[in-house]
Write a structure and sequence with these properties.
The protein is of the alpha/beta class and 337 residues long. It is built from 10 helices and 15 strands.
Amino acid sequence: MSLKDIEVGSFASLNWLWLVGLVAAVWLVSVAVDRRAVSRFVSDELRDRFLTTDNSRRRWLAFILLSACMVTLVLCLVDIRWGQVERPVPQKGIEVMFVLDVSRSMLAQDVNPNRLERAKQMIRDTIDEMAGDRVGLVIFAGEVKQSIPITNHYDDFKQRLDEVGPDDIVRGGSDLGDAITVAAEAYLTKTNQHKAMVLLTDGEDMESKPVEAAKKIHQEKGVVIFTIGLGDVSEGSRIPIKTAAGRPSYLQHDGQQVWSKLNGEILAKVASETHGAYIPAATKQVDMAGVYHGYIANIEQQEFETAKVNSFEARFEWFLVPAIGILLVQIFLARES
């Protein structure tokens, strides 16, 4: 059996070993004090009676047994496991479709490092709070693309999320209404429950009627939309691009630099039409754990198919039983002495 076949449940419990050391120190001090007291108050003729080899051995044996008992109990608390077993685990949760704006305006740097990377981090933070929900990803700019189908494999989801960007969409712009409509078709659940959509964007839209689209999918499919707005709402920010020569520059229109601002009004209306919530992140950090538990997780959950997972078998009794046995022997020896 290699170290890969062993799992430790609580490394912190090893801290109790200091107690074993403390007991050992106290015992050694008590032995030294006893010997000194015998030497001071007992004559040389009687000293051998008090410090017989038999008594010394019994005391050392009692000490060793007590120490062994304590060490074994600590190992019991450490929760060492080995031997994997397959167990069925019921899956319960909701389906959450993340809809991510990857248009050029999401590269604006009024949010550090830019709006798109901040949105990705928000998605990762949300998934870190999940324990059974299914997640999917739709990306959009001037067109819409389902990037990740509904899944419960969070690590694979995050890996794919890291790779998405503006280059995944051919046509520029921001078609918010179509993104909502396409994302609503990507759920596995066909009932009008258990479905949430998290829309992360700066709110720019090419007159695609996102409010009407949101109202329709809520009525027909029961989808609740939570919108998260990113970007500066007052001054906005320029949109960085690279020229043909590879030099950094900023997007221009009719010879003027384009400034992108957060359009929170349209996002608030989208959320309101579906009884969701609008989170005006703007340029600030947002506690996505609070957003998930305060809003998204409140949607009624459903039972998914049972999954099978491999887990290590707890072996604490392998240490608990010997500890009890050692303690009983130590008690017996103490009564005999």
